[in-house]
Amino acid sequence: MKTSITIGGYARNDIKGTVEFVRQAEKLGVERVWSAEAWGQDAVTSLAFLAAQTDRIGLGTGIMQISARVPSMIAMTSLSLQALSNGRFTLGLGASGPQVVEGLHGVAYDSPLTRLRETVEIIRMGFQGEKLSYQGKRHTLPRLGGEGKAIRLDFPPTKIPIFLATLAPRSLEYTGASADGWLGTSFSPDHAETHLAHIRSGAERAGRSIKDIELNVTCPVSIGEDVEGMIEARRAGVAFNMGAMGSATTNFYNDAFRRAGFVNDAEEIQSLWLAGKREEATRRVPDAMVTQFGALGTSQMVSERFRLYRDVGIDSLTLRLDADGMNAKLEMLEHIVDLLRGLA
């Protein structure tokens, strides 16, 4: 399987250390580095900087929020990064959630799948060198009744892979029908079909195969002997996703865990979190909601988890490394690369 890493929070971290970490990951053969974007750093600036600091590693937005930009600007930004990186850019897109979209960007979180579909269609027109003339439910180019005209972006036709970060069933189906890759979160190889069945269905209806889509999922990794300690360390993060990553009515992470069979757990953790009982919410997280959504334990245990990801059809892992400091992270990353190379 391919491997990738993520970067984020450079306002709080040592940017020189981040660059060095990415450079060392490149030497180890890591496929891509994905840039985070939520309510801190944007997804683009760090990649432009890294394009000048690296030679081979792929650079991807993980993700660029569609509600924060118009489609033509996403296309221009992507083409610029592709040129600056000598063809190493991958566009990762997502609709984000209502708390960020409405709270931070002031944009109504309505019809997110329609908005995503139209955004992808307009972006691909830009990549293909077509004039941007489009009539959709959420986007119209040129603006009706205005003085503008359809414009072709000043770039030659360029192929840039588009990966979609999706979680809801209909969005997963759209990913299968149209995307070059999937950026999966809240994914468990123990419950793989809760995601992959929808991607497969969308692909087949579009005359494609799920093998036409690069399946890239996030995989938190902890390696060591203290398995119970690792589980305890992760409970708070799971509780945060269940309760804080969305509103009381719209939380795609919570929904994904419910579809995997953790209905009562997800509901109760969310209720506790929203009631301000965060410590209780953390204690309520069962071991399985930690151990089945990543890889932790001894080297042998982690290797077995990687094999399970591979066997259910995952092509690439975005590694979230549970290690403190750059040296520890690099040591763990090197160990993980060796484990993946050793899979039978």
Characteristics:
single chain; 344 residues; alpha/beta; TIM Barrel; 8-stranded parallel beta barrel; 14 helices
How do the helices and strands line up, and which of them pair or pack?
Layout: E1 2-7, H1 15-28, E2 32-35, H2 45-51, E3 58-61, E4 64-65, H3 71-84, E5 89-94, H4 98-103, H5 112-127, E6 134-135, E7 140-141, E8 162-164, H6 169-178, E9 181-184, H7 193-205, E10 214-223, H8 227-243, H9 252-259, H10 263-274, H11 278-284, H12 288-291, E11 295-297, H13 299-311, E12 316-321, H14 326-341
Parallel strand pairs: 1-2, 1-12, 2-3, 3-5, 4-5, 5-8, 8-9, 9-10, 10-11, 10-12
Antiparallel strand pairs: 6-7
Helix pairs in contact: 1-14, 3-5, 6-7, 8-10, 8-11, 9-10, 10-11
What can you see in these coordinates?
There is one protein chain. The protein has 344 residues and is α/β, with parallel strands linked by helices. It has one domain (2-221, 297-341): Luciferase-like domain (TIM Barrel), CATH 3.20.20. It contains 14 helices and 12 strands. The protein has helices spanning 15-28, 45-51, 71-84, 98-103, 112-127, 169-178, 193-205, 227-243, 252-259, 263-274, 278-284, 288-291, 299-311, 326-341, and strands spanning 2-7, 32-35, 58-61, 64-65, 89-94, 134-135, 140-141, 162-164, 181-184, 214-223, 295-297, 316-321. The strands form 2 sheets. The protein has an 8-stranded parallel barrel, surrounded by 6 helices. Strand 8, helix 6 and strand 9 form a beta-alpha-beta unit. Helix 3 (71-84) packs across helix 5, helix 8 (227-243) crosses helix 10 (263-274) and helix 9 (252-259) runs antiparallel to helix 10 (263-274). The longest helix is centred in the last third of the chain and has 17 residues, at 227-243. The mean pLDDT is 96.
